[in-house]
Amino acid sequence: METTEKNFYTVPECARFLECSDKTIRRLIEEKKLLAHDIGAGNRRVYRIPVEELERFLSETANLKKSTQTTKSATEALV
Q: What is the side-by-side order of every strand in the sheet holding 37-38?
């Protein structure tokens, strides 16, 4: 039996993984903060998010949170 790795996530899968709504994932895609392939036909938007893109997004988000916490700690130290 052959095992296959998942190369893409759907919008609902990303939403569950990031603990947010489908609408938030779609907004991130529309704002180009999360890159995705539109595989829909016509006006119908059906997105697939590459695994690597989700990993990049998570990494950047983690770095942003870490940076914000460091700045907050430095600001509190000055008070």
A: 8-10, 47-50, 37-38
Q: What does the pLDDT read at residue 65?
A: 64
Q: Are strands 8-10 and 37-38 parallel, antiparallel or unpaired?
A: unpaired
pLDDT in the model for residue 13: 96
Give the SS3 label for residue 48: strand
Looking at residue 63, its pLDDT comes to 73
- Give residue 37's Cα distance to chain centre: 13
Structure tokens at 23: 């609408």
Whole-model pTM: value is 0.72
Strand-pairing partners, residue 50, are 8
- Joined tokens for residue 33: 């903060």
